[in-house]
Structures are given as C-alpha cells and as structure tokens.
Amino acid sequence: MSATLWFVIRRTLQIVPVVLAIAALNFLLLHLAPGDAADIIAAQSGGASAEFTAELRRSFGLDLPLYQQFFVYIGRLLTFDLGFSNVQHRPVFDLIAERVPATLLLMVVSIGFALLIGVALGIVSAMRHRSWVDSIVSVIALLVYATPQFWLGLMLIVLFSIMFGTLPSGGMMTIATDMSVWGRAVDIGRHLILPSITLALFYVAVYARLMRASMLEVYTFDFVTTARAKGLSEARVGLVHAASNALLPVITLAGVQVGHLLGGSILIETVFGWPGLGRLVFDALLQRDLNLLLGILFISSIVVVLANLAVDLLYGFLDPRIVHQ
Amino acid sequence: MKGFLHFWRRFRRNRAALVALFVLLAITLIAIVGPYVYTVDPFEMMGRASTPPSKRFWLGTDVSGRDMLAGLIHGARVSLLIGIAASLCATLVGLIVGATAGYYGRAVDNILMRCTDFFLTIPSFVLAVVLIAIFRPSVTNVTIAIGIVSWPPVARLVRAEFIAQREREYVLAARALGMSDIEIMIRQILPNALPPVIVVSSLLVATAILTESGLSFLGLSDPNVISWGYMIGVGRTVLRLAWWMPAIPGIAILVTVLCINLVGEGLNDALNPRVQRR
User: Fold this and answer.
1) Do B246 and A271 form a contact (C-beta atoms < 8 A)?
2) Chain B residues 232-251 with CB within 8 Å of chain A
3) Whole-prediction pTM value?
4) Residues forming a β-bridge with A85
5) What is the ipTM of this complex?
6) What SS3 class is residue B45?
7) Between B118, B126, B257, which is nearest A18 by CB?
8) Which entry of A89, A181, B9, B202 is 20 to 30 Å from B246 by CA?
9) In terms of Cα–Cα distance, which of A299, A256, A249 is closest to A97?
C-alpha cells in the first residue's frame, strides 16, 4: 500500500482514543453536576414522591453501576444521541445540528481572512525588517493581544452601526419577504463583516508575528543564499522561496487554534446575535440547561479533533517528509 | 540581592517594560487601597441611571445608577486577583505534570503528555463555561476553572526544560550523591528550568484576565463582587444610548493586559538573555 494511504489511515485511527476520552470527560461532568435527569423530570412534574423518582431512575438506567452507565452512554453517542434538553423539549443533537452551519461559516470566513491578511503582513514585515511597516505591525499586534475580543466587537458596533450606520449591528440576515439568492448572499455577507473582522483580528496579529519570525528564520537558510546568488530578485526570493517554506508553522498553529477560535466565536456570536453555537451556549446558560451545554462541549471538541486531523493530513500533503517518517 | 540587581539592570534596558511595570504597580495599588480611599459601594444606587461622566460621577453611572468609578476600582481587585491566582494554579499543575513527564520519560511521559494534548484539544473556553455552570460561579470556582484550562502550555514547556537538563553532569552528580528524585527535581533542576516558566506564567496572568472578563460578560461571575467583564455586560444593554458605559471597563482591561504583556516581554529579555528577540 502506498505510504500516503498508510499515513492517512494511521492518523485517522489516532483520533479514536481522543474521542473516547472526550466522551469520558463529558460523562464525568454529567455525573458531577448536581441532580440527574430523574430529579429534573420529577421536579417538573411538581412534587414527585421518592418512589416515583426511584422508578424514573430505574427506567433511565441511573441505578446501574457507573461503568455500565458509561457503556450505555457510549452506545447512545454512537447513534448521535446526546440526550434531551428538558428546557427546550427537543433532542440536544437536533438543537446543536441546526446551529453548527452558522458557526462554521463565521469560523471559516474569519480564519481565511486572518490567514490572508496575517500572512501578507508577516511577509511585508520580514522583507522590510526593522522598517516603519514592521514597527507599526508590531505595535498593532501588541494592542490587539491585549483587547478583549467581545469588547472590540461592541466598539465596532458603536462605530459602524450606530455612528456611521453603514453596517448591521447583529443577526445573520435581514428579515425580508422576498430576496433573490444573490441578494440573500449579499445580505448575509454584510451581516458577516463585523463579527468576522472582530473574530479575525486577534489571529491576524498572531499569524503576522509568527509568519514574520518564520520568514526571518528561513532567510538564514542556505537555499535562500543560493537563490540570491543565482541573481533572483529580492521580491522573488522573499515571496516564492522564503514565504512558501515559512508558511508551514503558520498552518500548524492555525490548526491547533481551532478550539481557541471556537471559544472566541461563542463570545462574538453573543455580541452580534449570530445564530450559531455561541448563542446556544448563552441561552443554555440563562436557562441552566446543562444537558445542552455538555452536548455543545462534546460536539465542539469533536469539531476540533476533526479540524486537527484535516490540518495534519494537509500538512502531510504540503511537506511529504512527514508521510515517510 | 546581587542577583536581583543584575536582573534589574537587564530589565531596565527595555523602556516599554519599565513604563508598563510602573503603570501595573499603580493599578495594583488602586486595587489594594482604592476601596478604602474611595469608599463608594459599587452596588449601591447613587444617582440617576446612565448619566455620562460628570463632576459628581467622574465616570458616570451605569443602568441602575451605580457609580462606575467605584465599579472600576473594585473590578481591578477581582481581575488582578483571579488573573494571578489562576496563573499560579496553572503554573503549579503545569510544573508538576511537566517535571514528572520530563524527568521520568518513557511510559510516564507518554501518558502525561497524551493527557496534556487532550486538554489542549478541548476548546478551553467552552470547558471553562461548562465547569463554572456546573459548580456555580464564585471567585474560587472561576479561578480554578481558568487554572484547569490553562496549564497544558506550562506542562509542555517544563517538560522540554527537564528533558534538556536531566542528563546534565550536575544531575548525574546529584544522583551519585544519593539525592532522591524529588530532591533532584525540586532543588537541582527546577531552579535551572524556572526562568522561561516565570515568563510564561506572567503572560498567563494576562490571558486569565481576558478569559475572566469573557466569562463574566456571559454572566458567569461571582454575583457578590463586581468585575470589569460584568460591567461591560451591563453596559452592553444600553450600547445605543451610552457607548461610554461598556467602553470604560474595556479600556481598563486593555491597559492592564497590555502592561502585563509588556512586563512579560521585559522579563523574557532579562531572564533569558540567550534567547534573542528579533
């Protein structure tokens, strides 16, 4: 079998124990939480007797030994059963599934934007090392690192929605009766601008700094000297030879930070009323819906695991040495 | 003392870090003595709601007519306290895990590092939200939750340092002298591994303050104390009418975190002189 296929299979199998560990953590947290499903339903039925609660426990299998309950729990997870939201009276999985697309849209647009601008700024800073561009990028990065993202979002709303009135302050689309497909896309795009810039700005700073450092390191390698000795222009050396090699650590970091990005998007979605997972977290918190919260933790962890897998596979493709290790 | 003077001479060379250190000391002073000097209860309704900054209320009042300046002063306490305590918490766990993994290697290292990777995978902010929702928001629980989600980078760093040190001659000599593993780890290797750890934990204080502000913005803060994130959350409801209300505590967070980061960079220059910054 080809080395590439082996690499893909090996790397994919590695996520199995991680997913099991995530399930175990969720199970543990579920049991640490005060009160179980039986208590909640008993409370909702208003004044339940001890016998009734015990009966409920039996019917839910909550009287079984913990390890048996864990196997039941795993079995349910395998059929996408994340439990029931006793507040919204719907399966947790359905509630989450309908919110994931909006969050993914926001995350993909933000990370794309951050990579594009961040890498570009990093290249410019490295090629103009110690120039005014380099200094300005460094100062802005310092400021961005220190700014709470959600607060930045609020301030952007003040500036662009309230003072200038140019961009919508929240939501994902205008509630209008008829709009062409194109018109709808433009409308969603307009709603995306502020939240995605807010979310991306931090990562623009991170990637710019990393790309700059990585470029400066690559500049010390022999092949760069060779490229210069061949008489290639400085632009070609920087953009083609150095930048393409300096990109790898940036991509690795972008993969590792998916979880961080997801956490940030929860706050940003709350600020902008974006109808994704973040808003769901906020609502679940208000209604003390622990089942739903744990479901969100589980699904978002899985999203991160899959994203890391995708980046690793991409990495193997970009740097064939990895595959043959 | 001589060591400190040496350190101070190096630290002083970074002007930005020096200025940041003084600003940070001022903020700390305000956090400690402020509530005794400016004795307004941040929860008491003092005047009309949502008034802009004026002579009576220097920073205005919030939606319930509470004094914003009092809130800002009390908020400094909570932010710094949780930031420092959570960072210490994370550093301690990271030191124990990283040192054990790096010193013993093999299976121990493997297990502990898989654990660390696992915690790096889980979206930390979501985990913190769930932990606090389960155990109820109090200053202690928020601190512990932030500590739990922030230790993995420390563990990785400490592990790398311990791996680099464990085969050095002085460690072998200590072992030959009959020192126990714990003694070697704490008295021999740790002092050599500490400088980069100090830098990372100082930067963790900044991250912890940002995380705390996000949590309390979502309403996950101790209901008995006022915090900057909570003030932003309150001000958000009247964003259209009184933009300064969420703006002011946000600036406080920005300045504090910026200063901590700058001091962290200064510490790095002073403690790890061999690592050149470009």
Assistant:
1) no
2) 232, 236, 239-240, 243, 246-247, 250
3) 0.87
4) A90
5) 0.86
6) strand
7) B118
8) B202
9) A299
